[in-house]
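User: I'm preparing a small set of examples for a lab meeting where we compare how different chains pack in three dimensions. I only have the primary sequence for this one, and I'd like the structure in token form so I can line it up with the others. Please keep the answer compact; I'll paste it straight into my notes.
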Amino acid sequence: MNREDAVMSERKTWLEVLSPEACGMHLHQERVGRIAVTVDDHPEIFPVNYAVDDHGDIFFRTDPGTKLDGVSRAQTVAFEIDGIDLDRENGWSVLVVGEARWVADPEEIERARSLPFAPWTAGEKANVVRLRPTKVTGRRIFRPVTSDRHAPEG
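Assistant: Understood. Below is the structure token output for the 154-residue chain.
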């Protein structure tokens, strides 16, 4: 094996499927995710601050507009969180698919507002949305760090 082949084999990337427990851990630790809804027959993705309750439901608050309209028309939405380590060239992502609904019950709104999250943008964000997961999957991408990865070519 020549030096070039050795470097290529050392830099091989692995894909690991995350367990349901690892996905849940990431969902509980993070605070910002992205909700994907259909708008005028095409997907659009929006960042949201969120929190997860004891049942695994995901909650976020929003003003009236595209996100809330998309949720109210959708049968199913997607929600995603991720983390990336650029120095080590690895990362992870968790994808949640499920039914999202605008919360109208005053008791459920108060319960959701007691969760540890607050919107970062201006506005009242009076509307609460609950995403009840039907599918949660995750993966981690890992590439081992090699000592010559950042060495100048020559």
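A couple of notes for your slides: The longest helix spans residues 20-29. The domain at 20-142 is CATH 2.30.110.10 (Pnp Oxidase; Chain A).

User: Perfect, thanks.
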